[in-house]
């Protein structure tokens, strides 16, 4: 009876790992929206260039 529990746990762990890898592969196709810089950051950058 103990062998069944061991195999069940192993299969569950493998299933979770594989599903997470599949989700990462699928989500890598999407692009994050570009970060909009605030005017304060632009002013700070401009003053440091002078």
Features:
single chain; 50 residues; mainly alpha; 2 helices; rod-shaped
What does this structure look like?
The chain has helices at 2-27, 39-49. The chain is mostly helical and 50 residues long.
Structural class: mainly alpha
- Percentage of residues assigned to helices: over 70%
Rg over C-alpha atoms, rounded to the nearest angstrom:
24 Å
Quick check: average pLDDT?
A: 83
The major β-sheet equals: none
Low-confidence regions: none
Instruction: Spell out the helices and strands N to C.
Output: HH
Strand content: under 5%
Number of strands: 0
The number of helical segments is 2
General shape: rod-shaped
* Distance separating the two termini: 76 Å
Short structural summary:
With 50 residues, the protein is mainly α.
What's the helix and strand layout?
Layout: H1 2-27, H2 39-49
């Amino acid at each position: 009876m103990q062998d069944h529990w061991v195999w069940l746990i192993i299969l569950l762990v493998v299933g979770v790992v594989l599903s997470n890898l599949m989700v990462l592969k699928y989500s890598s196709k999407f692009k994050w929206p570009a970060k909009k810089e605030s005017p304060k950051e632009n002013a700070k950058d401009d003053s440091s260039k002078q």
